[in-house]
């Protein structure tokens, strides 16, 4: 297939493009190479993808309507995976407009491109953050998600609503994937494992909000990618049993589906750090802080639907995945 992947210079987008190219698909990769974090790291990812003959990079911003339309008109992708977004929950407090331009306006431009160019299936990244104030765990796609606690979560929830409207109005098959705490090689420098590794090696204390008592469904990037590709290969269909009197948030009469994608195990942050300490051969020191505004104490993914309907099965434990990240980090930064 020819697949348009957005965010190919980003963490997850890079890994998805690698897998698609390795299996013989052609990938058109869009990224704006913004400076939210180290542009050199982003360029290094793209350089690795450029070693594949089937990769076509496009440097463009999804918020640029004409540029997005040109990509669809020129390359005619059969399917689209949207992994580009302004990430980072806390960054939104200082830069809210960036989130709307990238995550909402940019997503609209993708939907329009899919609509007008006969795209067979749109797969897009959502987030476990949409569960917000919900405390009923494990989080299920069949639960309501009407109380996001951050603008980032609200922007991704808006993607789900926008996708449903296009599925309903234009028959565009749309699958949304709610990611749970992804980590692994080539990760983002603003993510916890990256920050913790850097701090321990520098002899600096780790900032542990909520006194480190968070629990998360830490999910290794290879497991996330496997789920994305499985979703891509199975376009969403309508649920013939969907009932407007008892609406199921995860499905629709339209070709629309929402899936959780993450590890089945919820791990305490302190255990995550213990594994990292073992890998680095050093002990961490801590700056214990209260829970930050917008943070949720715990997350736990119920991925039953993705397993039963798309054959998804996460395989990499924290004890296996963290050492792989550390090996990459030491190699890339020569430390």
What does this structure look like?
The protein has 335 residues and is of the alpha/beta class. It has 10 helices and 13 strands. α4 packs parallel to α5 (151-170). The chain has helices at 11-22, 39-49, 65-75, 96-116, 151-170, 192-202, 221-232, 269-280, 304-310, 318-333; strands at residues 2-6, 26-31, 55-59, 79-82, 121-127, 174-179, 182-183, 206-209, 215-216, 219-220, 256-261, 267-268, 286-289. 40% of the residues lie in helices and 16% in strands. The mean pLDDT is 95. α5 links the parallel β5 (121-127) and β6. The chain is globular, with a radius of gyration of 19 Å. The chain starts with a strand and ends with a helix.
Question: What layout of secondary structure does this protein have?
Answer:
Elements: E1 2-6, H1 11-22, E2 26-31, H2 39-49, E3 55-59, H3 65-75, E4 79-82, H4 96-116, E5 121-127, H5 151-170, E6 174-179, E7 182-183, H6 192-202, E8 206-209, E9 215-216, E10 219-220, H7 221-232, E11 256-261, E12 267-268, H8 269-280, E13 286-289, H9 304-310, H10 318-333
Parallel strand pairs: 1-2, 1-4, 2-3, 4-5, 5-6, 6-11, 7-10, 8-13
Antiparallel strand pairs: 9-12
Helix content: 25-40%
How far apart the termini lie comes to 40 Å
The number of E-state strands comes to 13
Computed over alpha carbons, the radius of gyration is 19 Å
Largest sheet: 7 strands, parallel
Strand order of the largest sheet: 3-2-1-4-5-6-11
How many separate helices? Answer: 10
Whole-number mean pLDDT: 95
Poorly predicted segments: none
Strand content: 15-25%
The class by helix and strand makeup works out as alpha/beta
* SSE succession: EHEHEHEHEHEEHEEEHEEHEHH
Shape label? globular
